[in-house]
Amino acid sequence: xSVRTVAAGDTLELRYALRPRGxxxxxxxxxxxxxxxxxxxxxxxxxxxEQWLVDLLPGERHVFLLDPWQAFGASQAELxxxxxxxxxxxxxxxAVDQLVEFAMPNGxxxxxxxxxxxxxxVKVDFNHPLADLSIEFEVEIDRIL
Length: 145
Prior knowledge:
The chain is an all-beta fold.
């Protein structure tokens, strides 16, 4: 039986970590008891990360060094928004640099990082926390399901 490589649409058990190049992990499941199950194309992983998994062999560990354009792109000015505090949960405590999940009208959630807190408004950056950064994407595929 030959071991096949990962193809688009596959469901995988994998371990991965994301970190700014040379920095600390922002996300990692290498220490978890069980690997994460991900189906390529289902939105769990960003498409720009999924593309690096195609053609990998299970059992190999790789570290991809990605430039911002290969990863989460450049931050976009229109994704920095000033919101009235009345749009935010009343019982919520805020802090600058805090990541907050906002419920969107369509039922999805969007994470934003608080930049400034005013008397009546909060300035929030909805860009991906890794936008503008060169990142390391470390991955090991346990198996293809």
